[in-house]
Amino acid sequence: MVKIGNIALGDFPLLLAPMEDVSDPPFRAVCKQNGADLMYTEFISSEGLIRDAAKSVQKLDVYDYERPVGIQIFGAEIESMREAAAIAEAAGPDILDINYGCPVHKVACKGAGAGILLDIDKMVSMTAEIVKRVNLPVTVKTRLGWSHDTIRIVEVAERLQDIGIQAISIHARTRQQMYKGEADWSWLNLVKDNPRLHIPVFGNGDIDSPEKAAEYRSKYNVDGMMIGRASIGYPWIFNEIKHFFATGEKLTAPDLMERIAVTKKHLDFSIEWKGEKQGILEMRRHYTNYFRGMPNFKPFRTEMVTAEHYVEVLSILDRVQEAYADYEFQPL
Hints:
alpha/beta
């Protein structure tokens, strides 16, 4: 049984990665319904929380139906991160996660996210202060290192464990790689082979099918997996991986009826969270992903991303169902 603090997650948990503009409560809701064992919020700026910025504060929203759930924060200043950790704890998550992995320039160039991989001592000091500041289990998401020549992930994992983190998720790329090239999970074996390490280690990067999940589970000694981009428009991936682990067989791909049903659920959660106008606006980024691969879908997509009312979207989905009644989706 894998545990983070006292939170039991099963024998080999599947985690939903924190993704900017993706991992909001509506998306987390449909992933939870489709097998995600632990989910994290979008990453939240420590400075935004301290300034009480509306966008940052709204990202703190967590709901009982999605537990266990973690709030993830990022920042470059230790004192700001301490304050933000306290604010995040007050929002009632089960876990507090620190983002030391975001590679985007506007974050990393300021010494936040993956930028802190250039200063491991500061990374350890910041983490220690956050662990002391909150009563929640603290976890970390990071990358292998800034570049291939500066990878110190075995040392990093041990030092962070020793100052009190309860688990670590490792995206098996460097910051320099961004999201390109193949993730090198062999480093995760090295982390797990450290006899001093006893916290759970979750692997992240390139898990996009049940077969690959099974291959990496047997090949690399991780305690669970964190799935990000492969879940966008495809929340079914969690249950499909679990089914493959249990039976060695692949589930059939969700058909059009199921895709439309989950799209409607996602839309309903979005409207419930932000109201009809904003909920519909924020849902627009997801439509293409749910119907990825369908031929000649552009006219329907155009209608969906310009529709302004709930009944309009439902009407379009009804017409999609009629137009593609015989279409068969291919499995992952």
